From TrEMBL:
This is Acetyl-coenzyme A synthetase. ATP binds at G398, E399, P400, D422, T423, F424, W425, Q426, T427, D513, R529, R540. Residues 33-88 form the Acetyl-coenzyme A synthetase N-terminal domain. GO terms for biological process: acetyl-CoA biosynthetic process from acetate. Keywords: Acetylation, ATP-binding, Ligase, Magnesium, Metal-binding, Nucleotide-binding. Residues 95-481 form the AMP-dependent synthetase/ligase domain. Catalyzes the conversion of acetate into acetyl-CoA (AcCoA), an essential intermediate at the junction of anabolic and catabolic pathways. AcsA undergoes a two-step reaction. In the first half reaction, AcsA combines acetate with ATP to form acetyl-adenylate (AcAMP) intermediate. In the second half reaction, it can then transfer the acetyl group from AcAMP to the sulfhydryl group of CoA, forming the product AcCoA. One of its GO terms (cellular component) is cytosol. It is an enzyme of class 6 (ligase). It catalyses: acetate + ATP + CoA = acetyl-CoA + AMP + diphosphate. The gene is acs. It comes from Duganella lactea. SUPFAM superfamilies: Acetyl-CoA synthetase-like (SSF56801). Signal peptide: none annotated.
Amino acid sequence: MSGTTTQGPQETRIFAPSAAFAAQAAVAGMDAYNALCAEAAADYEGFWARLAKEHLDWQTPFTRTLNEDNAPFYQWFEDGKLNVSYNCLDRNLQNGNADKTAIIFEADDGTATHVSYRQLHEKVCKFANGLKARGIKKGDRVIIYMSMSVEGVAAMQACARIGATHSVVFGGFSAKSLQERIIDAGAVAVITADEQLRGGKRLPLKAIVDEALGLGGCDSVKDVIVYRRTGGDIAFKAGRDLWLHELVDGQSADCEPEWVEAEHPLFILYTSGSTGTPKGVQHASGGYLLWAALTMKWSFDIKPSDVYWCTADIGWVTGHSYIAYGPTAVGATQVVFEGIPTYPHAGRFWETVAKHKVSIFYTAPTAIRSLIKASDVDPKVHPKNFDLSSLRLLGSVGEPINPEAWMWYYTQVGGEKCPIVDTFWQTETGGHMITPLPGATPMVPGSCTLPLPGIMTAIVDESGQDVPNGQGGILVVKRPWPSMIRTIWNNPERFKTSYFPEELGGKMYLAGDGAIRNKDTGYFTITGRIDDVLNVSGHRMGTMEIESALVANPLVAEAAVVGKPDDTTGESICAFVVLKQARPTGDEAKKLALELRNWVAKEIGPIAKPKEIRFGDNLPKTRSGKIMRRLLRVLAKGESITQDVSTLENPAILEQLKETS
Ligand code: WT7
């Protein structure tokens, strides 16, 4: 099993939610949690139907809750109609939130702008009318390649309003990655910005879009809509490119929402798998929004007076469910942050919490670990120097949080009074799956504890049989749930084989993670991916993708990529490379390693750069020619090989690959 390991289920410290927190919580106490679980167990469809009626506004009510006829292509609320943007915006105009701040935009340079629900609604309607004026309509796919901005959120909501399916591509992906996604999605338009601002630096966006479209195969794209963020110098192609301010100029501030079927694809989001190219994870409208809204209440205990801040980027699923959709669906006030945690100093997060009186803060373990390190180096950026008294709940997402980081977050950031929700979920699950409920579940550092009510997670062995608590196995979900992935865009077959493998009976959702439950509490601890997917700083990457990028370089004959445990980033990328020329050493190896790292950045994006590259005359292979990654993982860690290597064709190669270039 690869991946980061956590403390494991033997951790014994337990932190119960405070009585004060529990008293006001949406799910108050374990009895309330157990009652919801019992309701789901007794009448699964009735449970979800009740919640979908209570938490969403339907233009046409649904009569059928779950359709399993074409399993595993499950359908939820299929004959109901709704509009996601109506639920996120118009609803707030009607229920007294019109003048409430929807977004506090905290710019890279520290400038803050408040946008009310009324203003956001107007922005989205004009944007949506502008898209319609360009002929973009229900079912069309629109790529959004933008940095963190009000306009980025508005672009997503505008697509939802007219029934266009968006696909947000993280602004750190390369032109080639962007091109692949444009082609796979068959996008008719790209929404971007001139440049993005991060850590005081200007980084290109529009220029990368131009490059992507120039790579060819993108004839479906008719419009490129550009938000002016920096005013930087960019090229404009007449007839294709259009400024956002010109698109919306003169458009009406009202836009009748397009009422779509609950199953209408709201978005496609590309994510890495263990093989092949990234998968376009397709999400529906109704079930997805239900879960985004409901988990805001259950997991984050969101209240009207909260100031909520999720530090993720809209390019990842966290930024979809817990920035663009969940918070707006429940009428929350949220901070949208353009910058990075270390600019202008590594106390930026805490300074921003104090500045906007943030009460709910949601971030990734990598960020926490790097800020712990930063405050060891420079005590001025330690959280104790900032007024964090507004905080009442903390969240963690994207990777296992090690108990040390958990304790620091709990004591130094949360002042021992804030529950921490360690939320386990995935791009494919649409929203939280396993997490403590802040007013109910006693917390154990490093454990995501128990599944949310209605989420039927289990741990099984390779034949799909349940394993007893205390024994590790494969994490699965035994029943469909509303916000689950619907299919892989353009590839229903891959959807079936990736997530509902026959070996497990074809009916269980395979998460791709290993897990173990504590013998006494039944709490889940995620032990890391069981496939060839890496998690670097909470970013998901396929080893195959990086290998393909490496072998695309004319110098490279063969490459194998593995993950190596890393104190800050969880895992780091280590690549073993065989060149077509003789194995380089010394300065030559250093130079070539640098060249290949930059090559990968250009092929995929800087986040996929191997931290380490080692050169060999060959790779360790079995006599049948299979690369033994298991051994490479041991070598990457710098450990010596104790395993039996008698099946190896070329054991001598292991010596060579111990060396870092
Ligand atoms: C993978 C999913 C969750 C949204 C952002 C990442 C790992 C995620 C946790 C957690 C342990 C976690 C898993 C999962 N992961 N959250 N709380 N504890 N591991 O979404 O890019 O689809 O990655 O992230 O390995 O499979 P993603």
